Amino acid sequence: MARLLVALVVILVAVVQSKEIPDPGDLALVLSENEFEDYLNLWLEHKSEFNQLSTTFSKSESGCTLGVNEDFGQPQPVYINNNTYLTPTGATGKVNLYPGEQVTIACPGPKRFILHPNITASVATAIAVCVNSDLVSGAGWLNGSGAFSGLTCSSHPTHDARATNETCYNNNLVIRVGFTVEGVFYPLYSSCFDERRLEVLYVWYEQNPQNAVHQTGINRPSFAAGTFYPGVPVNDMYKKEQQKATLTNLVGSHLADKYLTTRQYLARGHLAAKTDFIYASGQRASFYFINAAPQWQPFNAGNWNSLEQKLRARIGNAGYNTVVYTGTFGVTQLRDENDRFVDIYLYTDENNNPQIPVPLYFYKVVYDADRHLGTAFVSINNPYYSESEVRALTFCTDRCRNNSAFSWLNWQPDRIDIGYSFCCTIDDFRRIVPHLPPFTVTDLLS
């Protein structure tokens, strides 16, 4: 907590002096998992406010204009428009509706209903109609016109993680995460999950210019296991005392103390980032263990976070319409007391089968189907490998290194302690990681 307070003082001084505040990656080896997430929220909020100050914005006289960070109340409903989630116009962070356009306002889940100062009926789902500016009407449930920002839920909407009859790589289970509104399920992202090893192979979802601006200041819920880790106390496996016990069994007590420090330990690393989703409802739905894997915390806060932030901005600036496949591959290893490499897992079942592997690689494959462009961004999840070891594990020619087309990336690829990183063509990536479905790529997405 003391470290976070110091970081907050730095932010305050920077704001007062109109200076740039430290990038979250600069604090990767300073802040704990929760402290880093709190700082990242504040940093993103500050950046959002700065961008708003530098952007001219006025409410529309004809139709409705709603700012993602100004006009959406909390606890936030789910918004459906034209049979899909409501989205802003391009990378503007502004939702534009024509006069009379309808948006479904929904608060799915038991004992949840819509709230508004002008409410006249207790309903869980209703149709809001654009009047003008930020005003909407609602026949039979809203008295006259009211501010869109006044629409909230009595409690946070309930999201679902649903097993499907579909399969992904190696006949593994496809799980869809989203919201059900009036009997229709609207997916946000999908997970390819190995039920035997309790391993998330990859998650996939759309990432378009509309995702460039997301809501900030959203509180983080606890991670949920859903029905996919039966009998396994998965959250407990991430507790530091349990990590110590797990590593002690694998490598011995002395080395466990060496590997697990106040700076280096395993965090619940998001695959689809919370802030890859525009609205609070979607961000909260990202907190499933089927969207996470064990990740060394400075890597989580370092090159992985940098990739998340820079890639989202690049997609918005370039106008790409992409599918992101983000996943894990292999099992990381640590040396034991006999100087032998040992595979690291967080859990072992009653039959002594290892489960919840600590991945060797984390990756994001970004694909624009219209342009047939794609790039694989890969990082090594182990701060204890030597330089020669990470170079031996680099399985392709790094296409981002010394390439001006990737100047936007701005990560620190040679930093082993925050995630040694490199980029591959899709073909080179597929030769080692066989997870992806087939698609055609003619060049790098840069």
Describe the overall structure.
- This protein is an alpha+beta fold and 446 residues long.
- It has nine helices and 24 strands.
- It folds into three domains: 54 residues; 91 residues, no CATH class; 273 residues, Extracellular Endonuclease, Chain A, CATH 3.40.570.
- A hairpin with a 5-residue loop joins strand 20 and strand 21.
- About 1% of the residues have low confidence.
SSE layout and pairing:
Blueprint: H1 2-16, H2 33-53, E1 64-67, E2 78-81, E3 84-85, E4 94-97, E5 102-106, E6 114-115, E7 125-132, E8 135-137, E9 145-147, E10 152-153, E11 160-168, E12 172-181, E13 184-194, E14 199-207, H3 234-237, H4 240-251, H5 253-259, E15 266-270, H6 280-284, E16 292-296, H7 297-318, E17 322-331, E18 333-335, E19 341-343, E20 345-348, E21 354-357, E22 359-368, E23 373-380, H8 387-393, E24 421-424, H9 426-432
Antiparallel strand pairs: 1-4, 2-3, 2-5, 5-7, 6-10, 7-8, 8-9, 11-12, 12-13, 13-14, 14-17, 15-16, 17-22, 18-19, 20-21, 22-23, 23-24
Helix pairs in contact: 1-2, 4-5
InterPro entries: DNA/RNA_non-sp_Endonuclease_sf, Endo_G_ENPP1-like_dom, His-Me_finger_sf, Non-specific_endonuclease
Signal peptide: 1-18
Active site: 270 (proton acceptor)
The helix fraction, in percent, is 10-25%
Mean pLDDT value:
93
Count of individual helical segments:
9
Named CATH topology of the largest domain = Extracellular Endonuclease, Chain A
Level-2 CATH architecture of the largest domain: 3-Layer(aba) Sandwich
The value of Rg in angstroms is: 23 Å
Major β-sheet strand ordering: 11-12-13-14-17-22-23-24
Distance between the termini: 38 Å
Poorly predicted ranges: 52-57
The figure for the number of domains is 3
Strand-residue proportion: 25-35%
Can you tell me the CATH class of the largest domain?
Alpha Beta
Shape, principal axes of CA atoms: globular
- What's the main sheet like? 8 strands, antiparallel
Note the quaternary state here: single chain
Question: Which structural category fits the helices and strands?
Answer: alpha+beta
The beta-strand count equals 24
Protein name: SFRICE_007635
Active site: 270
Pfam family, one: Endonuclease_NS
GO molecular function, one term: single-stranded DNA endodeoxyribonuclease activity
